[in-house]
Amino acid sequence: MSVSKSTLRLAAVASAAALALAGCASATESVGSTGDSAAPGKGTKAVGFIMVGPKDDFGYNQAVYEGSQVIKKEFPDLDVLTAENVPEDDTAATTMEQMIDKGAKLIFATSYGHLDAAMKVAAAHPDVVVVQQGNTISGAVPKNAGTYFGTVYEPMYLAGIAAGASTKTNKLGYVYAFPIPQTIANIDAFERGAQSVNPKAETITVSTSSWCDPGKQQAAAASLLSQHVDVLTQHQDCTATVIQAAEKAGAMTVGYHADASSLAPKGWLTGAVWNWGPLYTDIVKTVLAGDFVGSKFNANYRVGYKTGTNPFVLAGFGPDVSADAKAKIDAAQKWLGTDAGSPFVGPVEDQSGKVVIKAGTVPTYAQNDALSFFVKGVVGKLAK
């Protein structure tokens, strides 16, 4: 999930170097004219998905692609157009325009940094629905646009329980890309989950300033392992490098985005895995019915354990996760689905020990989407 400097400024977080990914492989199937329609997206014969990376990255983009194939199966009369390795610059807008030329009336722009291009295309094509994955739209929401995402920090909290219960050194490692709110929430939730069962657990962070750079990932993993970290996790688009580094070193690992347990048969603990199919299906049905305007998707839509239709699952457990840890994870998942449940129920202290969320306070999903600090127990400064 990539991010541009302009998007980071809009999100009011630190600026970061833009990811430069080359190439754009889009679908080649042509479709007939969809005709005019009063409702944005109604009458569509094609649906487009643009991805910032390859569809087989054992991570973020693979999960998106797998979700797109659910749409292909569920709606056999629709042409499903996909494009891999689409950068977050004007190429994204050009790719979406090409999909519209092929008949797409609904486009999923799935990178955090695709927001600007998505809004540009939505403004130019009021009859096309453009939904963006992971970012937020500030101010008035265009009638033919929206954003959506899942509270993936919740399963990361559960994965933190597995890590905290399994570590022998009390040192957990987290490789991340950019300090956007989603990343910060994931890291904080992971540490909070670990502390809930092991108050001595700390999470050491390393930033790669890239969503997918295997060389930087290898160096980050080596640095963490040299500090006696025995559980590695990450917020990277492509996940194989970090997982394989942990397995080779005899360390344990927590996956992210996609189930990569096959890469770590010995050290795999669990993972927060996207399952976009049901949510994508819900969006497509809403658009085909002509009901997008004013719907839950025509805004900044978020779903989690409290709301249902969760776009994520907790992956299966590896051999090092004890029966006691599994029971605690199951209880915590049920708790997260209640009004009182949250990885960030107060009191929450930042790294300096200052109480940022007061005791008894249960922050909303929107508030969690705006986190800008590391909690106590996280080691390392927020990347610039």
UniProtKB/TrEMBL annotation:
What residues form the membrane-spanning segments? none
For this UniProt record, give its keywords in alphabetical order, as a comma-separated list: Signal
Give residue ranges for domain ABC transporter substrate-binding protein PnrA-like: 46-295
**Keyword flag Chaperone:** no
What SUPFAM superfamilies would the database entry show? Periplasmic binding protein-like I
Q: Name one Pfam family in it.
A: Bmp
Q: Signal sequence span per UniProt? A: 1-27
Q: Name one GO cellular component term.
A: plasma membrane
The name of this protein is: BMP family ABC transporter substrate-binding protein
This chain's source organism reads Nocardioides pocheonensis
Q: What is the lineage of its organism?
A: Bacteria, Bacillati, Actinomycetota, Actinomycetes, Propionibacteriales
